[in-house]
Every structure is written in C-alpha cells, then in structure tokens.
Design brief:
Layout: H1 2-5, H2 8-17, E1 22-30, E2 33-38, E3 41-47, H3 49-54, E4 67-70, E5 80-85, E6 91-95, E7 103-108, E8 112-118, H4 125-138, E9 141-147, H5 155-166, E10 170-173, H6 182-187, E11 194-198, H7 205-213, E12 238-241, E13 247-250, H8 264-269, H9 271-277, H10 294-301, H11 306-354
Parallel strand pairs: 3-5, 8-9, 8-11, 9-10, 11-13
Antiparallel strand pairs: 1-2, 1-4, 2-3, 4-5, 6-7, 12-13
Length: 355
C-alpha cells in the first residue's frame, strides 16, 4: 500500500535533487518532529540544520501532505532527516494568526478540497465565499460539502445561495446520521487521490472521515447547544489513508481564514462579478456612479446581490492589503540583509589593514 502512496515520480524527483535520498510524505507534525510515510512504513523525522538555515519563512518548512527527500526509509537506526521539500502541486495557505504577515501552510498536494459547512446556525454564505477564494488560490479542485442535512433549516433558500456562490461548482448534501451523501464523497477519493476538509469546528468533518474509514478512528464532537457552534475535536492536521487507497487530511476547525496576497483567487471565486465588470463602459469603473456600469445594472434588476458585491470588494481589499504588507516585509528584510553584509565587508577591510 505504501508504495502506491509514494509515486515513482516522487522517488525520481527526490533522487535527482538529493542524490542517495528517499521520498516520503508528511502525515503529521508535532513540535518540529514529523511523522513521515515511506515505502517501508512510517517513521519519525526532523529537518536538517542546512534546511533550517536555507528556509526564509515558515512556508519553506514541511507541511502535512508534502512530499519530502529523506536520508533513510525507516528509523531503526534513529530518526530520519528531512533534506528538502519536493515541488508542491497545490498548496492551501492562510495568514498565520496574530499581527503578522507570516504564511501558514494548512495542507499541500491536495487534489480535492471539501469546503465544509453545516446547514444550521453555522451556515454563513460570506464565509463560504472566503473558502471558495482560498480554494481557487490553492490550485486544488474543490466541492462544497453541506453537512447536518438531517437537521437542515431553510434548505431550499440556503441551497440557492450556495449555488450562486459556487458558480456551477459541485455541491454535496450530506448527513452523518442517515449516511446520505457519504458515497458521493467516497467516489471522489479513489486510490492516489488526496482530499482535505476545511470548515468550522463541530460541523461533521471528522465524522465524515470516520464514515469513509468505516470506524471511529477520529474523535468527534457535536455542536454546542444554543448557538449551533462546534466544539473543537481535531486539534492538529493529520494525513489519513483510506481503505480505497485515497487519502484525507483532517484539519482543525477554522472559522476565520485570512486571505493572502494572491487576488486571482478572489477574482475566480467571483467570476460572475468579473464577467459583469468586463462589460462596463469604462475599464476603470468603480461600480458606483459611472454611466454604463453593468454591475450597477445587475444590482438594479436583482440579478446580483448587493451583499455579494460587498463581500467581493472586502476580500479584494484584504488581499491587496496583505500583498502590500508582504512587500513591506520583503523590503525590510532586504534592507537588514544589506546592512549585515555591509558590516561584514567593513570588518573584512579592517582586518586586512591590520595585516
């Protein structure tokens, strides 16, 4: 089974970049120690000092789902050493928590991203629009997974909202109680396919994975009484192998998911507004008072919801702000690097004069 999890192409890539190395895949991270799947099983590994020195940010370190180059295939002679991260085919990222521009990689090399939301008080179409923008930016295929179907409130109205936000994308209705929708998810997870679930806490992500596994491997927690918000059950990211040979990455609940500097994901998530904008009389139309504005026409005739436009503009602004903040950080880091280099050159010249 593990030979199928580590494709031959990844073994070739590892060998070409780091001669004599072996390919593995990150299944779990815990305090700078990684659980890695190899062709021989699983083992613990840590990154090399050389890799630490060459890393310019957290994004350069291994994340769950990453393929990596290793110095060994098992840890019988000690922990393995991770020599480098192999090329990512997709990368689900977000801004790290707090007042920082650091990037946190949620999962890497994901083929299918399930944007999960419950059909009760947790339902928030604006949050779903944000998830869709993140999915577009990641390079993964995505599907909207609507859980708690058995206790759905206002199902028709919510489904119409989701259809507009998903712009023709796949939508799956699911109940972990009745089992409806689980087979539809299972069909998307054939051998070699990696999926990830993102969404708030307690909305059924771990329960879906348990259904796919056929047991209660993951802890689950229901919704709190009163507000419909979930209890945290998954506390870290973990790659899990399914009986089908497919793989899933369970992630902690994420009610807030800050966008990064790539505005293209926002534009793709709101392709309907982008299409309307292309028909405006003026290329720099602000969609406020300009004559011949197709967006304003759509608002007037009801084909575009004003709240959706406001959401689009908010996410655009957020992405631009992050891009600007990251540019400022790069400039500061470059200035500090040049200052350090200048100091080193002065010291070398000073030492030469002493000789």
């Amino acid at each position: 089974m593990n030979n199928e999890i580590i494709p031959v192409s990844r073994k070739v890539e590892a060998e070409s970049l780091f001669p004599g190395s072996y390919a593995g895949r990150i299944a779990e991270e815990e305090k700078e120690l990684y659980t890695v799947i190899t062709s021989r099983g699983t083992m613990l590994a840590s990154v090399t000092g050389k890799m630490m020195q060459s890393a310019s940010s957290r994004e350069d370190y291994p994340a769950v789902g990453d393929y990596v180059a290793l110095d060994r295939e098992d840890d019988r002679a000690g922990f393995g050493r991770i020599m480098g991260v192999l090329e990512r085919t997709s990368c689900i990222r977000r801004k790290a928590a707090g007042d920082t521009t650091d990037i946190q990689v949620i999962a890497a090399n994901v083929d299918m991203l399930f944007l999960t939301m419950a059909l009760n008080q947790d339902f928030n179409i604006r949050r779903l629009e944000r998830y869709i923008a993140v999915a577009k930016e990641s390079g993964s295929e995505s599907a909207v997974l609507l859980t708690k179907l058995d206790i759905a409130e206002g199902l028709y109205e919510k489904l119409e909202e989701v259809r507009k936000a998903a712009s023709g994308g796949r939508i799956i209705l699911l109940s972990n109680i009745t089992g409806e929708g689980v087979d539809e998810v299972r069909k998307l997870l054939s051998a070699g396919i990696t999926a990830a679930f993102i969404g708030s806490s307690g909305i059924g992500k771990s329960s879906v994975i348990n259904s796919l596994l056929g047991d209660e491997a993951l802890a689950t927690g229901g919704l709190r009484k009163g507000d419909g918000k979930g209890r945290h059950t998954t506390t870290h990211r973990e790659l899990i192998i399914l009986p089908s040979g497919g793989m899933v990455i369970d992630t902690p609940g994420m009610r807030e998911l800050h966008l990064l500097d790539d505005i293209s994901g926002v534009d793709e998530a709101f392709s309907d507004i982008l299409s309307l904008s292309s028909g405006c009389r003026f290329k720099d139309c602000s969609h406020r008072t300009e004559p011949g504005c197709r967006v304003q026409q759509a608002l007037a005739d009801g084909t575009l919801d004003r709240k959706r436009l406001e959401s689009y503009e908010k996410l655009q602004k957020e992405a631009r702000h992050m891009a600007s903040a990251m540019d400022d950080r790069v400039r500061r880091e470059k200035k500090a690097e040049n200052k350090k280099l200048g100091k080193l050159i002065k010291e070398i010249k000073k030492d030469r004069r002493k000789i």
